[in-house]
Design goal:
The two termini are 39 Å apart. It is globular, with a radius of gyration of 21 Å. The chain has three domains: 114 residues, Orthogonal Bundle (Butyryl-Coa Dehydrogenase, subunit A, domain 1), CATH 1.10.540; 102 residues, Butyryl-CoA Dehydrogenase, subunit A, domain 2 (Beta Barrel); 162 residues, Butyryl-CoA Dehydrogenase, subunit A, domain 3, CATH 1.20.140.10. The longest helix has 37 residues. It has eleven helices and ten strands. It is of the alpha+beta class. The protein binds flavin-adenine dinucleotide. The site of flavin-adenine dinucleotide has 23 residues, from helix 5, strand 1, strand 3 and helix 11.
């Protein structure tokens, strides 16, 4: 078969983006990320056990100049890293816990990258540099108390009056929500259920309030907020993207967001493997290291195989995203990247949850304690099967591409 025929064949994926060679430049970035992660670990350990927000994530990553990794060098401390480099960085961050990584998903993947893609030059110059230095933290507010998997049903609305838009409504479960300085917010024109728009809302806007959500199943060290808009006054120049294109803004943001979740989950799985191997080489039962019991070896082998598979899929998704980013007008490439990213997120999230469970099993009773990271991963990584598209939504998205649009469940 000719190369072109091979590519067109439905049974063979386009593997032309499968070169995973890590460049010297990428290694340098990863070294800086690794150093920052090593500083975070003891603090995250302490905060987790005290169920306390980790307020050192921001200064540590700010000092390492990592708050604008994939943002263009034109803006502040942006480093212009491509999607794979950024995914590799988040994989390393993910080893420190899903809470630490979720900060980056909210700030960078859903916030900064969305502003960079859809913002006017004036908006980007006004805000992006401050976000890369940590002077401004970003969040992404799509979900509402009554609108999650179906963002089309959101109730937050806006009304133009004079030089401002006035927003009314609320947003729930927003990562970085109560610590963010700048939030991408979605709303419909008042009285309408179409023509959704996106806005850049500053935290000190009149009519805006935010509070942290308590009693979460996991992620005690990272912020998840509730946002309230009561005639919240947003300058007209803060509409993000073209009028009526809010859903397109949201969907492209979710591509970056899902990739960040996938990468972070690969890091979680790596940490589960490291921890399971370490413990199996230390713990003795029946006069042997438990690693010598073959049924314990099976748990380790299964984590390892799942890790390698989810890592390869995630890197492939990242490379496709980089390719699509380089050709923003190629909708075919974007759809392909979107589909593979959905699969990577779905796979890596489930693998990390399953692997955390296996690592807990290897640890026995010690796995049942938050003193050990497998237990934290088990509860924290659970959210990765919910946010940025639940398992069910992604399963349908993945299948519909194969079955045809007439099988779309949501229409
Ligand atoms: C810690 C955390 C952080 C988050 N961060 C953010 C953030 O930064 N920004 C943001 O906007 N949102 C955020 N979210 C919200 C998250 O994206 C939503 O929770 C998610 O989209 C699911 O929506 P929902 O919770 O309303 O569930 P629902 O949509 O009510 O779904 C409930 C159940 O029904 C299923 N279901 C719904 N519709 C269908 C269907 N058509 N077919 C089959 N099954 C279906 C779902 O899969 C799920 O199992 C966060 C959530 C959490 C928990």
């Amino acid at each position: 078969m000719q190369q072109e025929e091979l590519r067109d064949s439905k049974d063979i994926s386009d593997l032309s983006v499968m070169n995973f060679e890590i460049s010297d430049e990428q290694r340098l970035v990863l070294k800086v990320v690794d150093e920052a992660c090593k500083k975070i670990r003891p603090i995250e350990d302490k905060c987790y056990l005290e169920h306390k927000f980790n307020d050192k994530v921001l200064p540590i990553f700010k000092n390492a100049h990592l708050l604008g990794l994939p943002i263009s060098g034109k803006y502040g401390e942006g480093q212009g890293a491509d999607a794979l480099t950024y995914a590799l960085a988040l994989e390393r961050v993910g080893q420190e816990g899903t809470g630490v990584r979720t900060f980056f998903s909210g700030h960078t993947s859903l916030g900064q990258l969305t502003l960079q893609k859809w913002g006017s030059e004036e908006q980007k110059e006004r805000y992006l540099p401050k976000t890369t230095t940590g002077e401004m933290i970003m969040a992404f507010g799509l979900t509402e108390p009554t609108a999650g998997s179906d963002p089309g049903s959101l109730k937050t609305n806006f009304e133009p009056r004079g030089n401002y838009f006035y927003l009314n409504g609320s947003k729930a479960w927003i990562s970085n929500g109560s610590i963010a300085d700048l939030i991408v917010v979605f709303a419909y024109p008042k009285g309408k259920t179409e023509g959704m728009c996106a806005f850049l809302v500053e935290k000190n806007s009149e009519g805006f309030e935010a509070s942290p959500i308590k009693n979460k199943l996991g992620l005690p060290t990272s912020d998840t907020g509730l946002l309230y808009f009561s005639d919240c006054k947003v300058p007209k120049e803060n509409m993000l993207g073209p009028i009526g294109k809010g859903l397109s803004v949201a969907y492209t943001a979710l591509m970056s967001g899902r990739l960040s979740v996938a990468a972070g989950c690969v890091g979680v799985t790596q940490d589960c493997l490291n921890e399971a191997v370490r413990y199996a080489q230390e713990r003795v039962q029946h006069k042997k290291k438990i690693g010598k019991h073959q049924l314990v070896q099976r748990e380790i082998a299964k984590i390892s195989v799942d890790l390698e598979a989810s890592r390869l899929l995630t890197y492939r998704a990242a490379l496709l995203k980089a390719k699509s980013d380089a050709k923003p007008n190629d909708s075919g490439l974007r759809n392909e990247a979107d589909w593979i990213i959905a699969q990577a997120k779905y796979c890596a999230a489930n693998v990390s949850f399953r692997s955390a469970d296996r690592a807990v099993q290897v640890f026995g009773a010690n796995g049942f304690s938050f003193e050990n990271r497998p237990a934290r991963h088990l509860v924290d990584t659970r959210v990765c099967r919910i946010y940025e598209g639940t398992d069910q939504i992604l399963e349908q998205k993945i299948a519909v591409k194969l079955l045809g649009n007439e099988y779309e469940a949501f229409s």
